[in-house]
Amino acid sequence: MKRRTWLFSAAGATGALIVGWGLLPPRSRTGSGRLWPPIEGESALNGWIKVLTDGSVVLAMPRSEMGQGVFTALPMLVAEELDVPVSRIRIEQAGSDAIYGNVAMLLAGLPFHPLEAEQRPFKVEAGEWVVGKLARELGINATGGSSSVADAWTVLRTAAATARASLLGAASLQWRLPVAEFTVREGVISHPSGKSAHYGELARFAAATPPGKVTLKERKDWKVIGHSAPRRDIPAKVDGTALFGLDVRLPGMLYAAIRLCPMLGGAPGAMDIPAALAMPGVERCVRLPAYAGSTAGFAVVGKSWWQAQQAAQAMSVDWQQRPAGALDSRQIDLELEAALQTDVGFVFHEQGDTDQAETAAARRIEAVYRAPYLAHATLEPMNCTAQVRDGKVFLWVPTQVPQMGAAIAARVAGVAVEDVSVTVTLLGGGFGRRLEVDYIAQAVRVAMDCGGRPVQLIWSREEDSTHDFYRPMQVARLRASVDADGHINSLRIRSAGDAITPRWLERGLPQLVGPVDTPDKTTAEGLFDLPYGFPSQHMSHVATRKGVPVGFWRSVGHSHNAFFSESFIDELAHDTGRDPLSLRRDLLKDAPRHLAVLNLAADKAGWGRALPVGRARGIALHESFGSIVAQVAEVSLAGGQPRVHRVVCAIDCGTVVNPGIIAQQMESSVVFALTAALYGRVDIHAGVVQQKNFPDSLMVRLAQAPVVHTYLVESTRPPGGVGEPGVPPLAPAVANALFVLTGKRLRALPLTL
Amino acid sequence: MDLQINGKLVQVDADPAMPLLWVLRDLLNMTGTKFGCGVAACGACTVRVDGQAVRACVTPASTLAGKRIQTIEALGTPGKPHALQQAWIAEQVPQCGYCQSGMLMAAAALLDKTPKPTDADIDAAMTNICRCGTYQRIRVAIKRAAGIPPGSAVKKRA
């Protein structure tokens, strides 16, 4: 299918909606105070902000804190426009209204080339308008896609400015003085006449006062945005009081351990349940169907998790292979490479005439790259606490998608979604794994058999490793044509692997699933949208469906595609006798933002300057989630193995909200990506994942962690993402340094010398 | 069995094979100590036993009679946080935070034994896994708590 065909059919499908509904203005996301349950002493000024009688502020928090700093960054936006200290803002979990949905995350799914989107052609305007409007109606509350600040940027500042305007209006009406004569400092409104009141004194009146005309502060007047406010979640994370999903404790609570069929997609046959029930502390055993894309198995419920786990381990089970036959990752790798030969796939981007350029070329440079399946390995294993009582379901769960969790809980328990309440705890890591709802469904199913008692279902590390939704395996062929003068005239990339988004929709949002898979941007992102000015380009992806459960892994398609593209660019440089930095600079003439980021990283890393003997630098540049990151890795070999000493990281993420959090996220991304680059792989033999616990999958630890230096490019654009964009460039930067050190071009992850 | 946890004598009725981690978490509702792997690989469950860093997920509680067990809940007090906890806040170490109880207990055991650790000492003692990659800040925070000025490395053990 051609890109144009798809856009046309998408427009056709939404055509009915556009007529009529489309004439209405997009749904406002400020919301009304009626979205909060009324509480004595609290005045809700809109759907986001409440003011208490003591003048403190409550912010409705629709996003999950998984380490990315959102519990700090979003209150900062409110503090700025409301003129209150960040410390005076308390967070409460938001309700389920559509205003809390993540519009930015859905908009980012549109498959537009970023440099093209910059010019705002009609198709971009129209696509964003339709999806943005749909997203506002759907109101899907999700934390992912590095989108929390980008999504909140206008919404929260507007909500805060609106609340402030109502408070000022209330003071004006009460004092019969003009707003223009007021000053506001730290939540106190004062007038030169000596009249003064804090927000709490005006809140009740303000709730009924229209805000009038609301304007946001000018950039030059910002006092909070752009500064490294300390993270508000940290004190509780150093004294053991922070509450993760695993830390929920309820009266009468039971614990459940699970075992899923070791063969992906298989199921338990005969089981010796009486023997398990005879073990100490064991209460019951519950069979689990394959919920939400997971594999079938069973749970054992006990008085402690350890006792339940002992019994689950001891259970003798006749495991059945999946009906379609055993999955095997070596076989899938061969099939993907074959798919590249036989199928053009969906063309995500084409410009110029690549066929002609290849025919006319003096020579071609071609390479095949590959990436394995990969697990998330959040340190807090999957878990969910559920209680099913009197037709109602209560969940306490570390999740990135509370509404999808509520929806599947309702389906499993056979209740209305309004009868499900979800309390989102802190997340001990997310990385995309907690965009899935399999473990929520399991917990609800188990709780249904527990006579109204709450049950905490916890996966062992072995279950977590062997029943993940893995980053899909991908294979890519890249081909460039070089003319007689050494100019690179075309770049053709074809890749193959499973699409994630259609499978994820089937699992969690089946109402959005169409009759056929629509092209999934996540498969080709980071390949079709390169900033480099090759005159002819042709980028396509063959979407497969191999049966291994696949999901979103921190930076998704970018995570492997940047390795393919940025390693290949490096190959082109060496092959044509160019310095890798200087070739990239030449190719970025029409991409000034990218060029500035690249130059900053190269400059701070001392590109071209001598290094100690045995060390080499590698460079890579990649745009993802609205931000551009360049990294220079300094690498040596220790005992024949790569050792990364230092990574210099430059980022343009638009307007900087909290530079401290951005530095943290760059450090985090480098370590996360380095583990994947050096060690990360999931092998599936006879349906069984071979990497079962941390001893089977090496990870970067403190002794191997490089020093990361982060530099920010100043920008006045709206904020882009920071949780993921630091991940993609790391693997190619390291691989490119290893080429300098060894002369070996490593074209497969993990990097193995 | 009788256990001495955070300076208090605690009576627990548990299977002798039950690891300390689950005695703490499920029997005593002390949830600061975390479960990560169950095989002593990740260190999220690190506590101190007679001052030494111990992985609670593989240590049967019954083997700890008469020993002093310290968990994150007693590393400092709200009024008087441990120097490491102060340094963790000053250096803004935690991200998701799940590994940090174990990291802090491992670091506390290190500083007790080696008040001015070298980088190699820190490398050797801090073997816990952090998936958020807070390692670089952990190193700096340990040095800060040890009173080692920033930018200077202890070359030889004091």
Key phrases:
heterodimer; A: 753 residues; alpha+beta; Aldehyde Oxidoreductase, domain 4; 3 domains; seven-stranded mixed beta sheet; 27 strands; 22% strand; B: 158 residues; Ubiquitin-like (UB roll); DNA polymerase, domain 1; 2 domains; globular
Architecture overview:
The complex is a heterodimer of chains A (753) and B (158). Chain A has 753 residues and is of the alpha+beta class. Chain A is 33% helix and 22% strand. In chain A, helix 13 runs parallel beside helix 14 (438-448). The radius of gyration of chain A is 27 Å and the shape is globular. Mean pLDDT of chain A is 94; it is low at 1-19. Chain B has 158 residues and is an alpha+beta fold. In chain B, strand 1 and strand 2 form a beta hairpin. In chain B, helix 2 (83-90) crosses helix 5. At the A-B interface, helix 8, helix 10 and helix 21 of A face helix 1, helix 2, helix 3, helix 4 and helix 5 of B.
Summarize the topology.
The complex is a heterodimer of chains A (753) and B (158).
Chain A: H1 3-18, E1 42-44, E2 49-52, E3 57-61, H2 70-82, E4 89-93, H3 103-107, H4 114-117, H5 122-138, H6 148-175, E5 183-185, E6 188-190, E7 196-198, H7 199-206, H8 234-238, E8 254-260, E9 267-271, H9 273-277, E10 282-288, E11 297-302, H10 305-314, E12 317-320, H11 329-342, E13 346-351, H12 354-360, E14 363-371, E15 383-389, E16 392-397, H13 402-413, E17 420-424, H14 438-448, E18 455-458, H15 461-466, E19 474-482, E20 488-498, H16 501-508, H17 521-524, E21 536-544, H18 556-575, H19 580-587, H20 592-605, E22 615-624, E23 627-638, E24 641-652, H21 659-678, E25 684-685, E26 688-689, E27 707-712, H22 730-742
Parallel strand pairs in A: 3-4, 8-18, 16-17, 20-21, 24-27
Antiparallel strand pairs in A: 1-2, 2-3, 5-6, 6-7, 8-11, 9-12, 10-11, 13-21, 14-19, 15-16, 15-18, 19-20, 22-23, 23-24, 25-26
Helix pairs in contact in A: 2-6, 6-7, 13-14, 18-22
Chain B: E1 2-5, E2 8-11, H1 20-27, E3 46-49, E4 52-55, E5 68-70, H2 83-90, H3 100-113, H4 119-125, H5 135-145
Parallel strand pairs in B: 1-5
Antiparallel strand pairs in B: 1-2, 3-4, 3-5
